[in-house]
C-alpha cells in the first residue's frame, strides 16, 4: 500500500540551511518562526480553538534528504558520531519515509493577505520545510514523568558565545537584540561535526542565519562570532 501526503503548510524560520539547525526543538528558545497554511488547509476553520494550547506537535518532511534514501543504522552526534544504532532508535533525518516531529511553542495565530499564519517559538526546522500535520500538545498524555531518554537523557552541553566588536556593529538596527540572541543560542550548541568536538580546531566556519553569513571559530572553551556578512535575500524576521 502506498500513501500520498500533501503538505498543509510551509515553515519560515531563521535557519536557511541544514548546518547549525538545533538538533532538537526548544534548544534555541529565542528563535521565532511561522507556518503559512496552504491549499485546502488555508482556512480559519482549520485552526479554530488552536490558541487554547500552549504547544503544538509538528509533523514535517525532511525534504532536503528524501532523494538520498536511508539506511537501517545511523551514527548519532550524541554518541560522538562513531557508534551505530538503529534508525528507529534515533531521530536521524535519513528515515524510510522522511518524516520528522517537533514539539514547539505556540505564540499565536493570525490572518494576513488571505493566509492563515501560525506563529511559533523554539523551532528546529529549516526555512521552507513542508509541514504535513499539526496537532495540539496534550500535557497529561504527552509529558511522561517516568520516561527514559536512553543515550539522550540530558540536554547537550553548551559553550559561551562571544561577538567580536566588528560583528556587533554589523547587527541590523531594529532587530539587533533578537538576531544576536538567536545566533548566540544556535552557536552555543556547537554545530560542528561530532568528531571535531574536544579537539584543537583552527578552521573558520560559516552558517546562513537570517540574512547573515555568520562566520565563527571554536576554541575549547568558547565560540567567537568573527563577522556577520549581509546576504541579499528576503529572510524571515527582518
From TrEMBL:
NCBIfam families in the cross-refs: tRNA_TsaA
Assigned keywords, A-Z: S-adenosyl-L-methionine
Gene name in the database record: tsaA
Protein species of origin: Photobacterium sanguinicancri
Entry-linked InterPro entries: TrmO-like_N (IPR023370), TrmO_C (IPR041369), UPF0066_cons_site (IPR023368), YaeB-like (IPR040372), YaeB-like_sf (IPR036413), YaeB_N_sf (IPR036414)
Entry annotated with the keyword S-adenosyl-L-methionine: yes
Record flagged with keyword S-adenosyl-L-methionine: yes
Pfam families: TrmO_C, TrmO_N
Family: Belongs to the tRNA methyltransferase O family.
CDD domains: UPF0066
Stated name of the protein: tRNA (N6-threonylcarbamoyladenosine(37)-N6)-methyltransferase TrmO
All copies of domain TsaA-like, residue ranges: 5-146
